[in-house]
């Protein structure tokens, strides 16, 4: 399964000049930009509504940071349970029962 190294490189990204119809792709891009601007306006409105209800971006960022930290700690705990299970020759499910943990934990 060797590929010919002398073959030309074909980029998966198409340049604007390589598109089949200039006007159609230009219209498509304008439509996409318009849709994205609409989404941005809707998100800005949603953010303004949340802020008026007392939520803050700083609070949201702190919450996200804490969720990342929680997930990292949970991953470490899962890894430790896995290693302990291997050392004891049992399944992690058995360790959950032993430590009084719920399988959804």
Descriptive account of the structure:
The protein is mainly α. The chain has two domains: 22-55; 56-105, no CATH class. The protein has three helices and no strands. It starts with 21 loop residues before the first helix and ends in a 7-residue tail after the last helix. 0% of the residues are buried.
Largest sheet, strands/sense/barrel: none
Q: Can you give the mean pLDDT?
A: 85
Helical proportion, percent range: 55-70%
The proportion of residues in beta strands is under 5%
Distance between the termini: 45 Å
Strand elements, count: 0
Helical stretch count?
Answer: 3
What string, H for helix and E for strand, traces the elements in order? HHH
Q: Helix- and strand-based class?
A: mainly alpha
Shape, principal axes of CA atoms: flat
């Amino acid at each position: 399964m060797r590929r010919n190294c002398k073959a030309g490189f074909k980029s998966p990204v198409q340049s604007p000049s390589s598109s089949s119809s200039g006007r159609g792709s230009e219209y498509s891009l304008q439509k996409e930009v318009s849709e994205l601007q609409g989404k941005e306006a809707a998100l800005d409105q949603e953010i303004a509504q949340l802020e008026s209800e007392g939520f803050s971006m700083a609070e949201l960022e702190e919450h996200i940071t804490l969720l990342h930290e929680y997930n990292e700690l949970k991953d470490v705990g899962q890894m430790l349970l896995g290693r302990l299970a291997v050392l004891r020759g049992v399944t992690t499910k058995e360790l959950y029962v032993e430590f009084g943990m719920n399988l959804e934990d």
